[in-house]
Amino acid sequence: MSDFDTWLAIGLLTLATLITRGSFFLLGHAVKMPAKVQHALRYAPAAALAAIVVPDLVLVNGAVQVSWMNPKLMAGIAATLFFLYKRHMLGTIIVGMAAYSLLRVIL
């Protein structure tokens, strides 16, 4: 790949990024999304977070391990239960890290 090809690819990808991200600012008021789409998009951040976190909790050495011997999964469950009970984000992080540290030593 020549230098020209590299710079052309960088330029075109930059342009594509600007167009896709800028379209919301340029066309935001002109285009109205249906109420069902707006309602569905409310769940997008939670779905993205789950897509990042869940594989880390259940995969051990590339294989799915859903058992009591998985310290990450058990710490994640403990943190989730604490959050559902108290609704305190810092406490959730502390409980999750403490549970993981303790379970990693025990298991």
Secondary structure blueprint with pairings:
Elements (H helix, E strand, L loop, with lengths): L2 H25 L7 H7 L2 H15 E2 L2 E2 L6 H16 L2 H18 L1
Helix pairs in contact: 4-5
What does this structure look like?
The chain has a two-stranded antiparallel ribbon with strand order 1-2. The chain starts with a helix and ends with a helix. It is mainly alpha-helical. It has 2 domains: 1-32; 35-106, no CATH class. The protein is 76% helix and 4% strand. The mean pLDDT is 94. The longest helix is centred in the first third of the chain and has 25 residues, at 3-27. Strand 1 and strand 2 form a beta hairpin. The radius of gyration is 22 Å and the shape is flat. It has 5 helices and 2 strands, in the order H-H-H-E-E-H-H.
Keywords:
single chain; 107 residues; mainly alpha; 2 domains; two-stranded antiparallel ribbon; 2 strands; 76% helix; flat
Total strands: 2
Q: How do the strands of the widest beta sheet line up side by side?
A: 1-2
Radius of gyration: 22 Å
The average pLDDT value, as a whole number, equals 94
Distance between the termini: 51 Å
Main β-sheet description: 2 strands, antiparallel
Count the domains: 2
Oligomeric form:
single chain
Percent helix range:
over 70%
What sequence of helices (H) and strands (E) makes up the elements?
HHHEEHH
Note the total helix count.
5
Structural class: mainly alpha
Cα shape? flat
Beta strand %? under 5%
